[in-house]
Amino acid sequence: MFPSISFSNNILPDISVVFILPDYKYSASSNLLKTEIKFLKNNFKENKKEIDINSYSQWNYFRVFDIKKKQWQVKEDIRKSAYEINNKLQDNKKISIQIVNLTGNEDFQIAFAEGLLLSNYKFDKYITDKKNKKESLQKIIIISEKPNKKKWEQLKNQNLAVYESRNLINEPVNWLNSEKLAEECVRLGKDAGFDVKVFDKKKITQLGMGGLLAVNMGSVDPPVFIVMEWEPKRVINDEPLVLVGKGIVYDTGGLSLKPTSDSMDYMKCDMSGAAAVAGAIYAAAKSNLPIHVVGLIPATDNRPSGNAYAPGDIITMMNKTTVEMLNADAEGRMILADALCYAEKYNPMLVIDIATLTGSAIAAIGKVASVGFSKNADKLYDLLEEAGNETYERIVNFPLWDDYSEMLESKIADLKNVGGKYAGAITAAKFLEKFTSYPWIHLDIAGPAFANTKDSYRGLGGTAVGVRLFFEFFNILIKK
After folding, report:
1. Is 258 considered catalytic here?
2. Is position 333 annotated as part of the catalytic site?
3. Structurally, what CATH architecture does the domain formed by 160-479 represent?
4. Annotated catalytic residue within 258, 303, 394, 430
5. Most CB atoms closer than 10 Å: which of 144, 363, 407, 425?
6. Does pTM surpass 0.85?
7. Tell me, what's the pLDDT at 28?
8. pLDDT tens-digit profile of 391-434?
9. One of 333, 394, 416, 458 is an active-site residue; which one?
10. Angle 87-75-277 (CA atoms, 0-180°, nearest 5)?
């Protein structure tokens, strides 16, 4: 359930309240008894940052934050605190909460609401026993005399998009195959007002997308190529920003079969990049942002049937580059390369591709951030990093040195699709770079895209990493 957000000038009785505090002082009006106020002050003297008071008809949660830190770090502390509060509300069977902000910075109040919204997401569609379903938060009340309604509306739209994106990632492939992913993108387009075109296998063949067609050879379902476009009447960019998302709806590894445990069993999430692109454009359109954005999603599953492409095959890509395919589990770069070729037709200001691309990215930096690369886009990359800090969807910059190209050299084709044992995230990026002729950024989100165990407000399962990052990036570009 997505909670409603409403506003009030005053604290309402009999509804739980959280107070966001910058220090150990409290002067807001509330229904606290004298004994409760004494209890609060005693806890303040002990410098406790988390104080809960059960007033029977409601809970009062006092949270103190060090607002002298960098704002983006404070906001992350606040989001995590909201996650803990949401757990307490569920345990106490409370479905409403009021947020009182005493820091003087509305962004901190927004961050708390954001943490609640993100924490409240559940994917329980397939749980039939209602006893196993916890009550969700239904109402968030913002206590504010002059709320910035535009910011709050954007928060709502951004997190609606996260919910949609997480749903797509968490759906199993027996519900979300490539064609169903296209249908869902069409539905999102109709809801938010952006254009969606779906290219079928015949059109994909006419375009010469050899990488996408090759990966699809082992599937009983046809491939699709999804083109989404948000272009309002007034925009800040003369050339569009193009987002490209990897849409492997399920990855067995093909003939280079993955092990099942802790690998293939989570591979419904291999279209997390596609879900991020769809969600970001959905949020932009819902918020009527004045930015021209195009989303490209090549989509298929990767299976090891009798006709699957095999290591040693030579594949001709959309731009006529020939690729010696040596690992069928390096399929993401094969379909992304065709999409990157297609992106050139837009004469884009920037292309960003986002993909759960390599285990090497996880090995290098773990699951706490994404690996980033850029070509001819230094200033824009800096802004994307800024957006990553603000949303705590952080990016770690990796090099694109030409030395790594040597690892992709083939004796019988223009390229190999793998570079060897070392630097796998970098050689994957170098492979993609060969298909770009414009300012370009590559994000490898293999680490943070999916949580096997609950990860604070990011939840369990698909995290929708990239949606909030891109939406913040859009807003930074607009402000610039």
Report:
1. yes
2. yes
3. 3-Layer(aba) Sandwich (3.40)
4. 258
5. 425
6. yes
7. 62
8. 999 999 999 999 999 999 999 999 999 999 999 999 999 999 99
9. 333
10. 85
